[in-house]
Amino acid sequence: MITRFLCCLFIFLFPLFIFAQNSDDAAAVKTKQKQQAVLIEQILADIVNLKLGENRALVYVKVGNLTWKTDEKRARTLFQTSIGELINAQTLAEADKKNAIYQNELLTGQMTRPQILNTIASRDAELALEYLYKTRPAAILKALSAPPAAVKNSKIGNSSNNYSYLAQNEINLEQSFIRMAADQNPERAVKLLKESLKKGLSGETLNLLNKLHEKDADAANALATEIAGKLIQSNFIKENQPDSQSINAAFVFLNEFIREKPATEKNLKLEETQMRNLADKIVAFYLQQDGRYGYYDVQSILPIAEKLTPASVVKLKQMPKNN
Fold it and tell me: Sorting pLDDT into bands at 50, 70 and 90, what band is 107?
């Protein structure tokens, strides 16, 4: 027990040891590196004594992160082992229906899984994306594939708000990894973004495009035109429910277009004709629905309408205000 505690403590102190080496002479650094290598081997030997698979997964990923700079191949193997332990823990949790309330964290993937994936993403975000898909628990798959109203009772409850929360968290995690992957590998940025767009739009789409614009302005501008076209074709309704992702994306694009920008700013090119068409579409949607969906009140839409579709301003001002 004491050995295990010291090993786990070392994982958190290890970065401090590395930092302290900067002022040491070469011989002292080499000695410390050997000592640390021995401790890492002891940690790996002790991991099997941890009872819970999720705990083993966390230690494996931390050790992999620590060894990345000195032995990337081994670090990748440790990451793979960590994911294997996580999947096994998730499988056991799914099978243990009697104790579902105690397995909720594994069933919904809201703590251990993001911690492991974020650690991997800091080294290789594309690998983290691959593992993101492999480790999706049933609850997240269900939340992503069905509208909230269609989700029925399950081991984590029957709250539609809960499933919406799970789906949005998963989308945010995926898109954060895509941004990181674009930073780590600019040559892959266009392909990653296109793959992301095939899965739908969100309020994060513009951030992804801006990230791409820093590396390949022409590709980003072309994709922006393509995305705007998709938004214009949308009716903002999905399975008889408001398509919140498309609605949010439309407002993000429109607000970006009307934003006052410094003359020196190198920003994403949004076509004026498309933005006017998109403004017409979103304003018409709001007027047709009589504001009952309540995603945006009149005060949020007016700045867009005043600049891009002024003929609609009078009608918008006549709409009932959302409280």
Answer: confident
